């Protein structure tokens, strides 16, 4: 995909504007930014003394942890499906 075909959108995350360029649709980019913003707000509510860098790192850690759990669940389902197919 060339630069001309990429989407460029400005989003607000934790009261700061970021310009995101990517192949995803503007709606997808906005949704991802909204989820990051929500997670940062959630962490800040629990730990109001944390600065933006701490919030960003904890948000990244939480998000990656969620991703890894989902990936493990997905892999387990795929393996289960393959094992069932092999039994047939």
Please supply descriptive tags for the structure shown above:
88 residues, alpha+beta, two-stranded antiparallel sheet, 65% helix, flat
Range of helix content? 55-70%
The gyration radius over C-alpha positions equals 18 Å
Count the helices. How many? 2
By helix and strand content, what is the structural category?
alpha+beta
Topology pattern, helix = H, strand = E = EEHH
Mean pLDDT: 93
- Outline type: flat
Biggest beta sheet attributes: 2 strands, antiparallel
Low-confidence region ranges: none
Oligomer: single chain
Q: Please report which band the strand proportion falls in: under 5%, 5-15%, 15-25%, 25-35%, 35-45% or over 45%.
A: 15-25%
| Main sheet strand line-up | 1-2
User: What is the count of distinct domains?
Assistant: 1
Distance between the termini: 42 Å
The total beta strand count reads: 2
Subcellular location: Cytoplasm
Main location: cytoplasm
Protein name: Cell division protein ZapA
Subunit structure: Homodimer. Interacts with FtsZ.
